[in-house]
């Protein structure tokens, strides 16, 4: 499978819009195709709406955002992209026809995946050209925030297509779950539907309202599910003997059974109860308002889970790790001409939420950017996760920031880092943050780092290999004039009011 630089979308509704936002955010260009020309405005709006929450998901240095274009020429789209994700309505014949058409225009090494919620891949690939490159890749709404994507191959799907797709989805921050066997509804929708069927029965039988049933989840099992799922949680519920005891204790109830397999008839009365119940729960809030609330807590939950390296938080942590590594390897190598004038250690765009009430980047973010620049430099000389796991790290002991021209939201900026000094335990760095459009100096950051033994909590000698690489950079830059801001202290000049008083 080719390296994916451009993603093609077939169908640009709710799910197509979500795919576009996610891919663009991770630096992939998107060509969105839909039969309705008016969907162009819709998908651009959907991408803009997703931007706020997505930009808070991680502060790791992201690649430059991808570009979005729109077309009603589906086959034209298929000829110019590296991967196609289909998101048209859930109708077997329509999907079969469109997938067959598009497969005649997409080169054979372009993987084609379907977002179908429950159709079988073997049915969908039936009339396609090169059907071995087809699979189901089922995402979850909102696609730009939920990492899960179920990958399901059909009878003709090759392992290479599934592996290639898994690599691509991982690169855009997702958790690909390979489904071993195709079944209607895949895995997650089977589970979701079982729960929903029970909800419909309980509302239909007048046992509970939609709000009460949501309470039964959100104050209890829902909190457990996000990190451990049902099975591991039940293993805990069985006490010391875990799942075995749990099954012995509750096995008999499974036979009673508590639940029903057939969904109830969707009568007008039941539909009214479901609609009225959820409207009452919405309490006058619009869908957009509720979506914003959902997006904000989905971001917050993933950040909390990241601290425990569990579930979606582990996915986020792995993505960040990779982004930091890519940023470090993208930083110019620490020898030769580039490092003689300073190392371009970080290239980013000023995020909208970094802006203060004056309309420019706020104080704390300068330290964050300089921290990322330090991280890139240190990773390039071997201070990486493995180094830290071995109980060694560099801690910041002093920082001094000076400010120059303004940096506004979405302004592309870069950092040039100079190594002013290094000895066995200390690294002295100087960062200069510039605007890309005119190279004007936005800020400088001078920082001293101390090498520590993290388990002893004491300063310690750094590894000789790291020390040697840092020394090489220092020597390469030794001929440069000292930056005018170096060693500057904050203070009023003698003629200021402080003196006169
Ligand atoms: N909505 C969800 O929560 C969800 C979640 C996961 C998967 N899915 C699956 O994703 C797919 C799309 O669902 P959605 O909710 O985005 O639907 P949607 O109705 O919002 O969007 C479908 C889009 O496809 C376009 N379209 C229709 N016929 C087309 C054609 N022949 N060629 C190109 N475009 C065409 C429509 O104009 C529309 O913009 C379905 O298969 C669905 O099962 C949906």
Explain what the structure shows.
The protein is an alpha/beta fold and 501 residues long. It contains 18 helices and 14 strands. An 8-stranded mixed sheet has the order 3-2-1-4-5-6-7-8, sandwiched between helices. Strands 9, 10, 11, 12, 13 and 14 form a 6-stranded antiparallel sheet that branches. Strand 12 (426-435) and strand 13 form a beta hairpin. The structure holds nicotinamide-adenine-dinucleotide. Residues 10-16, 34-36, 39, 74, 87-90, 98, 115-117, 138-141 line the site of nicotinamide-adenine-dinucleotide (NAD).
Structural key phrases:
single chain; 501 residues; alpha/beta; 8-stranded mixed beta sheet; 6-stranded antiparallel beta sheet; 45% helix; globular; binds nicotinamide-adenine-dinucleotide
């Amino acid at each position: 499978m080719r390296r994916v630089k451009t993603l093609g979308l077939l169908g640009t509704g709710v799910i197509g819009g979500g795919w576009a936002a996610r891919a663009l955010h991770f630096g992939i260009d998107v060509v969105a195709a839909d039969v309705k020309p008016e969907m162009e405005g819709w998908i651009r709006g959907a991408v803009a709406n997703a931007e706020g929450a997505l930009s808070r998901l991680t502060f790791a240095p992201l690649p430059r955002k991808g570009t979005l274009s729109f077309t009603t020429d589906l086959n034209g789209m298929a000829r110019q992209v590296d991967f196609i994700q289909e998101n048209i309505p859930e109708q077997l014949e329509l999907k079969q026809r469109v997938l067959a058409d598009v497969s005649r225009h997409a080169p054979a090494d372009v993987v084609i995946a379907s977002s179908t919620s429950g159709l079988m891949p073997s049915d969908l690939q039936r009339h396609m050209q090169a059907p071995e490159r087809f699979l189901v890749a089922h995402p979850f709404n909102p696609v730009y925030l939920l990492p899960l994507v179920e990958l399901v191959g059909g009878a003709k799907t090759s392992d290479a297509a599934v592996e290639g797709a898994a690599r691509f989805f991982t690169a855009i921050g997702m958790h690909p779950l390979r489904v071993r066997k195709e079944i209607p509804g895949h895995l997650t929708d089977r589970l979701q539907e079982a729960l929903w069927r029970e909800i419909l029965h309980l509302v239909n039988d007048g046992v509970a309202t939609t709000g009460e049933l949501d309470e039964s989840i959100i104050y209890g099992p829902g909190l457990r599910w996000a990190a451990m799922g049902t099975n591991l949680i039940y293993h805990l519920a069985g006490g010391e003997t875990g799942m075995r005891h749990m099954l012995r204790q509750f096995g008999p109830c499974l036979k009673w059974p508590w639940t029903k397999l057939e969904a109830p008839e969707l009568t007008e009365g039941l539909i009214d109860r479901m609609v009225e119940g959820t409207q009452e729960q919405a309490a006058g809030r619009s869908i957009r308002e509720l979506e914003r609330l959902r997006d904000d807590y989905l971001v917050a939950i993933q950040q909390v889970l990241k601290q425990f390296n569990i579930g979606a938080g582990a996915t986020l942590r792995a993505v960040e790790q990779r982004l930091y590594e890519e940023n470090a390897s993208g930083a110019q190598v620490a020898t030769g001409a580039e490092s003689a004038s300073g190392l371009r250690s970080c290239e980013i765009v000023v995020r909208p939420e970094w802006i203060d009430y004056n309309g420019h980047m706020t104080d704390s973010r300068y330290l964050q950017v300089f921290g990322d620049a330090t991280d890139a430099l240190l990773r390039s000389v071997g201070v990486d996760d493995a180094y830290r796991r071995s109980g060694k790290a560099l801690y910041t002991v002093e920082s001094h920031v000076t400010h120059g021209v303004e940096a506004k939201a979405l302004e592309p900026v870069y950092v040039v880092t100079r190594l002013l000094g290094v000895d066995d335990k200390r690294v002295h760095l100087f960062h200069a943050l510039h605007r890309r459009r005119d190279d004007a100096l936005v800020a400088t950051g001078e920082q001293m780092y101390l090498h520590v033994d993290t388990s002893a909590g004491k300063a310690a000698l750094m590894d000789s290999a790291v020390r040697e690489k840092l020394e090489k950079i220092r020597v390469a830059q030794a001929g440069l004039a000292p930056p005018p801001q170096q060693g500057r202290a904050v203070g009023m000049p003698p003629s200021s009011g402080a003196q006169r008083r």
